[in-house]
């Protein structure tokens, strides 16, 4: 039996369009975005950590490890993936799943599908077609080999902060999902997004 893969929930964003505060704790249909993501993720993976910067006590009720970026300033989700890789390596894992805290409709088979879609580098990205039918990657929802931590750290230190650019440069595999009746990687960026998504819960 395959060992469950640990996962890191990327919750280190600045939440500017959400009006500040902590996006992970924003409410959708009466529950936090973090609660929605955990409900979908927990049955699929092993240990879970939250990548967030600032006061870790705000996540105290969840009883999960909170790991901060290892870079000063805001280095984007790629720094969160690196923190997740290093944490997962400390758990004895060779891979880690990343998901974004603002994607409350994650598929129930995400981890399995990513595992099946591993590219030659070991990276697999979730993807879905946009409204025009063009395939769009969702690189925050991905499978990463922890052995790539050195390359990722070097990329960050050289100023590369775009997670999609880094992933695309390493020949990733893709787990492609249908975007009908709605995209399962729909992300919540504004209070209006939360309002529109409430009826989908």
TrEMBL record:
It comes from the Bacteria. GTP binds at residues 10-12, 23, 51, 69, 102. Its EC number is 2.7.7.77. Mg(2+) binds at residue 102. It is found in: Cytoplasm. It catalyses: Mo-molybdopterin + GTP + H(+) = Mo-molybdopterin guanine dinucleotide + diphosphate. GO terms for molecular function: molybdenum cofactor guanylyltransferase activity. Keywords: Cytoplasm, GTP-binding, Magnesium, Metal-binding, Molybdenum cofactor biosynthesis, Nucleotide-binding, Nucleotidyltransferase, Transferase. Pfam families: NTP_transf_3. Its main location: cytoplasm. Residues 7-162 form the MobA-like NTP transferase domain. Its cofactor is Mg(2+). Transfers a GMP moiety from GTP to Mo-molybdopterin (Mo-MPT) cofactor (Moco or molybdenum cofactor) to form Mo-molybdopterin guanine dinucleotide (Mo-MGD) cofactor. The N-terminal domain determines nucleotide recognition and specific binding, while the C-terminal domain determines the specific binding to the target protein. Monomer. Belongs to the MobA family. This is Molybdenum cofactor guanylyltransferase. The gene is mobA.
């Amino acid at each position: 039996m395959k060992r469950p893969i640990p996962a890191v929930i990327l919750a280190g964003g600045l939440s500017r369009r959400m009006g500040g505060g902590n996006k992970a704790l924003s409410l959708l249909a009466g529950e936090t975005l973090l609660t929605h993501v955990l409900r979908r993720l927990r049955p699929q993976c092993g240990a879970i950590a939250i990548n967030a910067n600032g006061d870790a006590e705000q996540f105290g009720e969840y009883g999960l490890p909170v790991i901060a970026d290892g870079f000063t300033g805001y280095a984007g989700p790629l720094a969160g993936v690196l923190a997740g890789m290093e944490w997962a390596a400390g758990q004895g894992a060779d891979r880690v799943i990343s998901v974004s805290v603002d994607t409350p409709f994650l598929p129930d088979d995400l981890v399995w599908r990513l595992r099946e879609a591993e590219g030659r580098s070991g990276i697999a990205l979730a993807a879905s077609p946009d409204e025009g039918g063009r395939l769009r990657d969702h690189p925050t929802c991905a499978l990463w080999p922890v052995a790539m931590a050195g390359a990722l750290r070097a990329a960050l230190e050289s100023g590369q902060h775009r997670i999609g650019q880094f992933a695309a440069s390493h020949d990733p595999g893709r787990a492609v999902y249908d975007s009908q009746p709605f995209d399962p990687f729909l992300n919540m960026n504004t209070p209006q997004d939360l309002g529109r998504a409430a009826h989908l819960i």
